[in-house]
Amino acid sequence: MTTEFYEGSGWQDTSGPYVTVPCHESDVWPIADNSISGTKDSLFDANGAYGGGHPVVAVGGRTAADGRPLNVTGVVVSATPGLTTALGRVIINIANGMIVHNYVANILTYNGGDPATFETAPVVGQPVYVDDGDDLAAGVTLSLSPLNVAGLKNPLAGVLWYCQDEMADSAQGGPNATYSFDTSLANSLVEQAYCILLLNDGRDLA
Amino acid sequence: MRSIIRKMSLIRQEQLRTLAKANPQLANGYNKRIAEVDAMFSEFNSGLNGLSHQFDPMPLQEVMVSADFTYAITEFVQRLALDGYKMMEFPWQPLVKPDTVPNYLPVYRYQHRSSLDDLELVTEKERPRAGSKDDATKRTNQVWRWDKEYDFSHEALINDDLGYFKDQATLMGDSARRTLDKYVSRFYTNAVTIARLVALGAMYSQNGRLTTARVSEARMAFGQRVDDRGNPMEVEAVYLVYHRGLQDTVLTILNSTLVPELATNAVNVVNFIPIKDPYMTGTAPNLPWYMFADYKRSNVTPFILGRRQGFPGPMILRRKSDIESVTSLLGPGTAVNPVMGDFETGNIVLKVEDVWGTYVDGTEGNLFDSRGAYYSTGTAP
Hints:
heterodimer, A: 206 residues, mainly beta, five-stranded antiparallel beta sheet, 1 helix, B: 381 residues, alpha/beta, four-stranded antiparallel beta sheet, 8 helices, elongated
C-alpha cells in the first residue's frame, strides 16, 4: 500500500523511446483530486514544487461521453507548477515501447463497488490499465482490470514486461540463473512494482 | 549622545541667565542653578568616559542582533557533498587467465591434457605395439557487451551546485570494474561450478570450516592431481580465496609457526597466497573457501576471462550533441558545450560499456579446468 507515486531515478527500465507532450495537471488522471477517491498522491509537494513522482497516467476525459477509454496514456516525466495546481504543466512520455517501473494492483474485476477477483498468476504481456478506482492506494494508478469500480472502461496503459534484471543471463555468466518475473501473487489485493511496456495503441483496440 | 546633552545643558544655562538678568533680585538663586546644571553635565560627561563609579562601566551603544534580520541573517545555507564510501576491491587477476578474442563469436581453445603411452617391454624379435594420443580438450570462449546508460536532463546538470555529478564518470568506471569483479566471483560461486567440484569428490571438495589441517588437505589433494591418463601433474594450490568473514582465520593460519588449532608442537607448513573475495556470500560460521592453482606456474587454468581485441577495459561514452551554435541562418556553426544536450529536449546521455566473457558450460560451470580448483562449503565444524 504505497501512498506515493513511484519515484526516484530508477523509474526507467529503458532509456527511451521518448515522445513527450505537455499537459495541464487538471487533464491528467488519476492524480490528486482527479480520481474517484479524490485523494491520490499529488505531482506537487507541500511547497508546490514537483515531487518527483512518475506515475503512469491517462490524459483527457474520465467519462465515456468524453471519449474514455480512448485516452492518451503515458508516464509522467516531469512537472512544473503553475499559478494554480490545476495549471501545473505536466510532461508525459507517450511513446510506444518505453519500459518503466510502476506499481500495479492485481485487481481483475470489480463487483458492487469493491474488487471482486484478483490476479494470482500474472504473466508477461498481460494488459495493464490506468484505473482511477478508489480501492487502489494513493500511489497506485494501474491495475489489471479493464473496467473501473464504476463499470467504466479503463484506458490501456501497456502490458506487464520483464525488467532488465529479471531476465536470465547466466548463460553469459550473468547473475540471473532464471528469470525472476513475479508470477505468483496472493489471492487478495496486492500492489507491487512491475515493469510495464507502455503502449499507446489502446485506442485502436478499444 | 554627549553632544546633545551638552547642547541641552547650555540651552538651560542660557535660559537661567536670561531669567537672572530679568530678575536681578533673584540672580544669586539663578546663578546657583546655572552652576548645578553645569555640574550635572560634567558628572554625566565623566560617566560617559567611564571615570565615575556612579555609571555602568559598559559604554552606551545601540545593538542590532541577528534575530533582528529574519531573512538577511538568520537563514544560513551551506550545502556540501561529502565523499562517498570507499569500496572493497577484489584482486582476482591471478586466478584468471586472460584471453583475447577477435569478435563476439565463440572461439575455441584446445589443450593437451594427457601424456603419451608408457613404453612397454619388447622381447627379442618382438615388434613394439602402436602408441596412441588422446584428442585435445575443447573449450569455448565468447565475449559479450555489458552496458549501463545514464540519461540526465540539461537542467539537472546545471542545477548541480554541489558537484554531485562531477565524479559521475569515475563512478561509472568503478561500476564497470565492480561488475567484472562480481562476474569473476561467480565463476566459482555459481551452483553449476560448485556442483561440478562436489561431484568430482574428495580431491576437489569438502565441507570443513577453514583450518590449517583443511588447507593442508586441499594442498595435498592438489599434490595428487593426475592428467587424463593418470600421470602425476605438477600443480600446487597457490591461492586461497575466502569469505571476508574469515580474514582473521586466514591471518592466523598464515602467521603461526605452529599449527594454531593443535596443542602439540606440530609445525605449521601450509603456505598460500590469500585473496579476499568481497562478493562471496555465507553466514558465519559457515563460510566457504576455495583454493586455486596458479596457471602461470602449472598451465592448469581454473578460469579464463575473455576480452575483445581492441577493447581492453571499460569505455565511457557520451551521445554526441546534435546541436551547434550559429549567428545566422546560413552561416557556419560552432560546437557548443556538451552540457547543452540534444536538440530535442536537452538530454545528456552517457553510457559505460565493457566487453568480457568466459567459458560457460552446463556441466562444468565456468571451470575451464577443474583440476585447478578446490572448494569447501565451510559448514562442518
